[in-house]
Amino acid sequence: MADAKGYHAYSGIARILKAYTMQLAVDNWGSVPYSNALLGNSGNLKPAFDNDRKLYDTIAKLTTDGIAQLSNSDRGVLTPSDDDAVYGGKAGLWIKFAHAIRARLFLHQSKGSTAMAASALGEINQSFTSNADNAQYVFGNTETSANPWYQFNEQRTDISFNNATMVDVMTILKDPRLPILIDTANDALLYYGVINAPVEFITYDELLFAGAEATLRNGGTTAAANVLYQKAIKNNMQKLGVKDADIDTYIAFIESLTLTNDVDQSIKLIATQEYFALYLNPEAWTLWRRTNSPTLTPVTSAGVPRRLLYPQSEYSYNKANTPASVTLYSPRIFWDN
To answer: 139 with 147: CB under 8 angstroms?
Structure first.
């Protein structure tokens, strides 16, 4: 409808949101229906599954087209403002979000590919420049508009995160973010767990970590990567409200874990810190699958799951097209190598 009526700003935003959502779907399930799907009741009710690698190209085109629509000097007669709950209709920030999505696309494919790493760096340089640019949805102060993690914590008081691998590692590192992320003292002073906390899509600190990794994969210097690595930690802590003195103390301590000329080991260090920063973000699982860092202990001999299973509804209503013999461990998503 936006295309037909020339509402270019809405056309751009719609494509960028679709690109973000599709990337989550591909990163979780691999091949999914797309080109023959989304046609409505009169369309194809049993769509074919598109190849996961090709879908990444489709997602890239959605972002390219979205940027073009938002860059059109004629935004259209109808333009977004307060109805845009993410950026308030600011086209420049949506364009930055599109570049952040593209950075993820290329970084996910950068293992063993300097070209992909270089492309990721190019996108990062066109994306967020501060925490103020973060793509996120901020919830309200009432129970009917509450953050979903707040609702989860309110309703599931029987669940504790205190024995998680992340807690153990952060405790060893004396990480000041631990009580802000996980309620170890039962004081509910949490960043993501309060009623009006944001749900983040992509953030500035994630892109700084991505830049550090991409720099190393592109053959850049350890010193250049280390600057981005420490800047990422600092910006994540500032976003969470860690005191400046505690940030400085932690950064000084982390220098004992400074990046080295061993690229693989340095990427593992970056990934561990990024894993903390991506707490509750689905990208954390993708990060672990790409880097195998931090070290996780599986609860079964089969290992840590590498993908999601297709829902039973797909096998019930679209069995002919739904991939068979899918487990939590295979086939892996195409970038999981």
So the answer is: yes
Report d(CA 254, CA 144) in Å as an integer. Answer: 41
Assess if residue 211 is contained within a domain.
yes
The DSSP H or E segment spanning 296 is none
The pLDDT of residue 42: 74
Whether the Cβ atoms of residue 228 and residue 208 lie closer than 8 Å to each other: yes
pLDDT digits (tens, 9 = 90+) for 106-127: 999 999 999 999 999 999 999 9
Number of domains, the chain: 1
Q: Answer yes or no: are the C-beta atoms of 137 and 199 closer than 8 Å.
A: yes
Task: Work out the number of other CB atoms within 10 angstroms of the CB of residue 146.
Answer: 17
Strands 32-33 and 49-50: antiparallel
Identify the bridge partners of residue 229 per DSSP, sorted by sequence position. Answer: none
Domain residue limits at 236: 134-296
Distance CA 39, CA 48 (A): 13
Residue 316 lies in a domain: no
**Residue 187: what pLDDT?**
66
Would strands 198-202 and 49-50 be described as parallel, antiparallel, or unpaired?
Answer: unpaired
Which pairs from 235-241 meet CB under 8 Å and 24+ separation?
Answer: 235/130, 235/131, 235/204, 235/205, 235/208, 236/177, 236/205, 236/276, 236/277, 237/176, 237/177, 238/131, 239/131, 239/134, 239/203, 239/204, 239/205, 240/177, 240/180, 240/181, 240/191, 241/180, 241/191
Residue 290 sits in a domain whose CATH number is 1.25.40.390
Low-confidence ranges of the chain (pLDDT < 50): none
Give a yes or no: residue 60 inside a domain.
no
> CA torsion, points 182, 293, 238, 260, in degrees to nearest 10?
140
| Tokens representing residue 253 in the block | 């301590």
Calpha distance 25→62 (Å, rounded): 15
Residue 126 within a domain? no
> What distance in Å separates the CA atoms of residue 179 and residue 154, rounded to the nearest whole number?
18
Q: Which two tokens stand for residue 58?
A: 């489709």
pTM assigned to the model: 0.95
